[in-house]
Amino acid sequence: MGKGKLEEIRQYISFNGIDLVIFDDELSGAQINNIQKELKIKVIDRSDLILDIFARRAKTAQARTQVELAQYQYILPRLRGMWSHLERQGAGIGSRGPGETEIETDRRIVRDKITLLRKKLAEIDKQAFTQRKERGEFIRVALVGYTNVGKSTIMNLLSKRDVFAENKLFATLDTTTSKVVFETTPFLLSDTVGFIRKLPHHLVESFKSTLDEVREADILMHVVDISHTNYEDQLAVVNKTLQELKAFDKPTVTIFNKMDLYETQTFDEWLGDETKEEILRDLYDRWSNELQGNVVFVSATERRNVEGLRETILNKVKELYAIRYPYKTMFY
């Protein structure tokens, strides 16, 4: 941004009484510092905002450690730009070496903290891996999708558990796994952290153990909020993230959720029933063709087509049992 654009933003801030500026991309420490000097207002970037949301949502020791590690990794390369006022010589002998600047001391503290948190996470990862290994010969199904598409609501619906579900970004940070039995067929169902466009790489690295649930799943249930104006972009973002996690080639069923909201937004009071049915039929046909029939349209809050969803999951799970554990098919 040049001086003219900065001046334009500064005037806009002054006129509208704004007290925070958020950039939708990652900024360096120097950029944040320079823009704050010009605008005389707090400036944060996309990564900082997402990390802040994660910090507010983190409940368990694992999630808190993962978020803290991501925050320190975010801060480290930005120390010089953000804390330039600390760059003065430290005198005397003690905790700092002679001649060591305060900025170097701060960097050392942050690096030590990162090392400590990585060790702590390695221990947690080891425990989580042992827990996953001890789950026995069950087919694993993982709910994946963009943040705030209704994964936790569907989890509660299918598993009869009370997983925290709310209409906000990243309500779920911790993976919840439940044993579910449809008819006589048991399997493990996991609710995972939501993805987002341009997810900071610090978070992907820190949440490695949480994302291992996705990597180790046998079947993926990709939940999509069909009522969202950019649902196709969100679907593409999740598919790209799954490719990065090397989990894209797994058997996948796409669950188009929030059909009730989609209909409210799409249909007006003048549309006849036949026209409504035709619009829905075109939608079903389009996605059924694109995804080779591996689709289900539901409304989790209204419990619409829950039986269809259960049947689809059951058929997929039975197919995999027949391939992986054929000796169990007589029981399931």
Topology readout:
Layout: H1 3-16, E1 20-23, H2 29-39, E2 42-45, H3 46-57, H4 61-75, H5 79-82, H6 102-133, E3 140-145, H7 151-159, E4 176-182, E5 185-191, H8 201-206, H9 208-215, E6 219-225, H10 231-244, E7 252-257, H11 259-266, H12 273-290, E8 295-297, H13 306-324
Parallel strand pairs: 1-2, 3-5, 3-6, 6-7, 7-8
Antiparallel strand pairs: 4-5
Largest sheet: 6 strands, mixed
Structural class: alpha/beta
Uncertain stretches of 5 or more adjacent residues: 84-99
Percent in helix: 40-55%
Give the averaged pLDDT, no decimals: 82
Q: State the shape.
A: flat
Alpha carbon gap, first and last residue: 62 Å
Please compute the radius of gyration using only Cα atoms: 24 Å
Total number of beta strands: 8
Q: Could you give the order of strands across the largest sheet? A: 4-5-3-6-7-8
Explain what the structure shows:
This protein is α/β, with parallel strands linked by helices. It has 13 helices and eight strands. Helix 3 (46-57) packs antiparallel against helix 4 (61-75) and helix 4 packs antiparallel against helix 6 (102-133). 29% of the residues are buried.
In short:
The chain is α/β, with parallel strands linked by helices and 332 residues long. 51% of the residues lie in helices and 13% in strands. The protein has helices spanning 3-16, 29-39, 46-57, 61-75, 79-82, 102-133, 151-159, 201-206, 208-215, 231-244, 259-266, 273-290, 306-324; strands at residues 20-23, 42-45, 140-145, 176-182, 185-191, 219-225, 252-257, 295-297.
